[in-house]
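B., you asked whether I could sanity-check this one before it goes into the benchmark set. Here's the sequence:
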Amino acid sequence: QVQLVESGGGLVQAGGSLRLSCAASGRTYSNYAMGWFRQAPGKEREFVAAISSSGVRTTYADSVKDRFTISRDNAANTVYLQMNSLNPEDTAAYYCAGVSRSRGVVYTRPYDYDCWGQGTQVTVSS
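And here's what the prediction gave me:
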């Protein structure tokens, strides 16, 4: 299991940008497919973006696909979520998740993942 720590959350104005980072520890990080999820108060955790272990394949939720970009730097043991054109509906706690699965595959369901970070809060003001 890889240990994950998110950072980069904070308060941002609508229309602004923010980049989240997920730092991983563990020698098997490069074998992990990674994902970002978010959860607003009183709501279910929802999928945001995912990336394969190599970083070649990505997928996004429809609500963010034209605004967010997931990437990874395996040399730095870090996965990123670049968020542009933020709006108040993006306000949530954002979680990084990982799982060791087949290469070239992305996963979009919470139960696909077995490693989770503690979350970082993103608040978008109108």
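One thing to flag: The chain has a mean pLDDT of 94. Otherwise nothing jumped out at me.
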